């Protein structure tokens, strides 16, 4: 049986850039998604935890220190264990780090975690549009430039010039949740959920709506070319999801590895796993989600990944370019 995994998204940035505003916006517009939050306060009073308590499905507060001060992976794993366990039933965990935390260390700690239920969902760096930290932009899978209401969209250009991942502009932290996670349809309770009550009371807080581009192919995609496309962080694309057939079954080290893979990305953070049998396909079915998307360019990039009759036969290890991002090597 395959382990149920929960993506853990790290939200980092300097003090006052709008991290809590972004997390609160996600919680208020969860649309059925069950979100757990780890709030990393620095100081004796858990102010950040107070700001999100009651809005999240689950909140864990880490007082008196930064996550970057946790020197072993077990420290972070212990904090996340309850949130990512199947019993919790969460769809997403967001770690809002103190403004004093070092993003590189946050990523290292999560990637070193041995919890089979927690998977790296990407580093989201929140930057101040008026004075963006370009070093954070270079590290992040997704960069959120907050404060466009004060500085204008031109503030994005400087960040895009150096960012390795996707770049999105916001005001007041209003990031469309669709850029991170899909809505989940669950039976509606007789009593309104807190996010629904908040929307009724406050009204919808406008955000830059996500766009989508669909791509289908009746032929398999070349694993190497597809991996290069995903790793390049196509302009405007924040998420990619779908299923893909590749010509080779996965290469050495994967017994009876499948040919069809489920693909999920957030910025440059890539996750693949064997597709459920009901999602079998002869080629590819992908959806790209982001803002200001160049649809012709994206379609051209994916079309170039399609295997043609003129392509040489794949080597034994050809699929490893993609399957090295596999996340479900453990069973339970």
Short account of what is shown:
Helix content is about 25%, strand content about 25%. With about 325 residues, the protein is an alpha/beta fold. It has a seven-stranded parallel β-sheet with strand order 3-2-4-1-5-6-7, sandwiched between helices.
SSE blueprint and pairings:
Blueprint: E1 6-12, H1 19-28, E2 35-40, H2 47-52, E3 58-62, H3 73-84, E4 92-96, H4 103-111, E5 118-128, H5 134-139, E6 142-146, H6 148-151, H7 155-160, E7 166-170, H8 194-202, E8 211-217, H9 223-231, E9 237-245, E10 260-266, E11 269-274, E12 284-290, H10 295-303, H11 320-323
Parallel strand pairs: 1-4, 1-5, 2-3, 2-4, 5-6, 6-7
Antiparallel strand pairs: 8-12, 9-10, 9-12, 10-11
Architecture overview:
- The protein folds into two domains: 6-202, Rossmann fold; 211-323, CobW-like, C-terminal domain (Hypothetical Protein Yjia, Chain: A,domain 2, 2-Layer Sandwich).
- The strands form two sheets. A seven-stranded parallel sheet has the order 3-2-4-1-5-6-7, sandwiched between helices. A five-stranded antiparallel sheet has the order 8-12-9-10-11, with helices on one face.
- The protein is built from eleven helices and twelve strands.
- By secondary structure, it is an alpha/beta fold.
- The longest helix is centred in the N-terminal third of the chain and has 12 residues, at 73-84.
- α5 links the parallel β5 (118-128) and β6.
- Mean pLDDT is 80; it is low at 43-47 and 249-256.
- It is globular and about 55 Å long.
- The protein has helices at 19-28, 47-52, 73-84, 103-111, 134-139, 148-151, 155-160, 194-202, 223-231, 295-303, 320-323, and strands spanning 6-12, 35-40, 58-62, 92-96, 118-128, 142-146, 166-170, 211-217, 237-245, 260-266, 269-274, 284-290.
